Amino acid sequence: MKHLIVSVLSLVSVLTYAQGPKSLSYPTSSIFENVIFSESVGVLGKNGFNFEILDAGISTKYTEYGSGFFKNKFIMVSSKKIGGLSKLDANTGEGYKNLFCLDIEDNGSLKKPLLFSRLVNTMKNNEGQISFSPDEHTMYFTRNNEGDTSTYSIYKTNLEEGSNGNWINQVKLNINTNDAYSFENPSVTRDGKQLYFTSNKPGGFGGFDLYVANILADGTLDEAKNLGSKVNTTKDDKFPTFSKDGSYLFFASQGHANLGGFDLFRSRIGKNAYSLPLNLGTTINTKYDEIAMYFASKTRGYMASSKSFGKGKQDIYKFELNEVLQTIEGKVLDVVTLLPLENAKLIISDVDGNVLSKSNTDQDAKYEFEVKPFEKYTITVEKEGFEPKVVEFESTKGDDRTYLKNMLMEATKAEIVEVEDELVIQVENIYFDFDKASIKKASTITLNKVYDVLNDHPNMSIYIKAHTDSKGSAPYNLRLSDKRAKSARTYLISKGVDASRIKAKGFGESDLMFDCGANCTEEQDEQNRRIEFVIEKE
Questions:
Q1: Helical H runs in 240-315?
Q2: Using one digit for the tens of pLDDT, what is the confidence trace for 444-475?
Q3: Helix (H, G, I), strand (E, B) or coil at 60
Q4: DSSP letter, residue 482
């Protein structure tokens, strides 16, 4: 029965490809091609990514893969033979690799491959990937070592001032410590401060490892550092590139949890460490080799694959990354009463402490943040009258979903302080419904703090003074404030405080903190609308 299912899937795969290879996406092919080769596919799945993979329009019988961008053109490495006298590389059985530049159409397809530069390309060597400084005046390129087309060194060259492609001062970089080993895949960071590359030199973890070196003022490099065992494996780890904002490292690896051959991975570049590499999932990776991923924008770019329906050993495909939508939402609540807390301030930060978004809870105490799959976050919550709360959160799923998380906050205790020769119980303001004397439910938490002080000091008596802003008539404000003062008194009595210990009176607008009339700001009006809990002297 299992073999019958595989046969049916294979037939459907063939029919799907026959109907339209240029519109065939990896999400479809991954299901058919990987289901019989890896028990982990069902577990791995999309893994938080949703790629659409399409033919880039330039596939040939030759090995071809990308090498980034220059002057708004795409750079390609190709083993296409140039001229009738071209020779084959004995190590690959193909022509020597050269660099080509291609125009990019509006739909992302590539066309018109032209030789990149005769000053860099040679007829008797393999030229590998290249990378440029942000101003595109410095190029780092690879060329095979003399007498061995399977090992490479990295060179630096400069664009002559005012020229149209005259690359001068070609220098072999000091990181090439031994021609017996290979130094490949140069990739300059978005800020131009570092160069990533790969090498199988001694001292690594096995096979090719990823390295990084700081770029000095003259374009040379300081000592290269291995990216460490979290990123590198005992197998080959190659082709480092970056997200458009420079926060993520993308690379190809034969190690880590993969589907076979080279898979594409992503790791966050943190301030002090790299995150554990994340497989980009079955919508882009297959049992074949996927390598050389370059982003043209936040969600679009190019990669190469040796998939079976391609024309060469490696073919270039364009991709579109459709965002996996995830949110975290919930309410901010008082931990004791579970009352909703309106206007609480929330901040969500990434693993390095960078603030991603800020929000205030609405009248129902709800909050919501967008998050990405498989990322770690810190959410900070602040509310007047409550202890700040810090919550660590990790998005542990890869599909479109909403995580539910209520934030429970602990109220601070009231303090007894001296204000203008009076001792007062200092708490945050008491809020009422507009134009009413009824206490908002959330403000009962504040009144409970006053109750706790009275309960801890059984001989204490207080005088509740309520004030309004200057909007409305003075007689009306006086009556409203008096009702509000007595509402607070009634609540405390209902909690068990003896009525003889509490006096209450409204003062209307007679004692404004800000006497600004019609020119008061909302904040000034709010501070004018206040209730004071004055401790009566014995």
A1: none
A2: 999 999 999 999 999 999 999 999 888 889 99
A3: coil
A4: H
Q: Is residue 6 part of a domain?
A: no
The three-state secondary structure class of 239 is strand
483: Cβ–Cβ under 8 A, 6 or more apart, which residues? 437, 506
Paired tokens of 259: 């589907």
With contact defined as beta carbons under 8 Å apart, do 491 and 439 qualify? yes
3-state DSSP call for residue 245? coil
Question: Which range marks the domain in which residue 439 is found?
Answer: 415-535
Residue in 489, 472, 445, 448 with CA at minimum distance from that of residue 529: 472
Residue 230's region, left for phi above 0, alpha for psi from -120 to 50, else beta, is: alpha
Strand partners, 315: 305
Write down the pTM of the prediction. Answer: 0.80
DSSP state of 325: P
Residue 398 and residue 478 in one domain: no
Residue 201 lies in a domain: yes
pLDDT tens readout for residues 7-38: 333 333 332 323 333 333 333 333 333 332 23
Residue 72, domain member (yes or no): yes
Tokens of 135: 């101003």
Question: What is the 3-state secondary structure of 389-443?
Answer: EEEEEECCCCCCEEEECCEEECECCCEEEEECCEEEEECCCCCECCCCCCECCCH
Angle at 296 between CA 290 and CA 301, to 5 degrees: 30
- Residues 480-501 have pLDDT tens digits of 999 999 999 999 999 999 999 9
Which is higher by pLDDT, 126 or 308?
Answer: 126
Q: Reading across the β-sheet that carries 98-104, which strands appear in turn?
A: 64-70, 73-78, 98-104, 110-115
The pair phi, psi for residue 284, each rounded to 5°, is -135, -35
DSSP 501: G
- The answer to whether the beta carbons of residues 263 and 256 sit under 8 Å apart is yes
In a domain, 26, yes or no: no
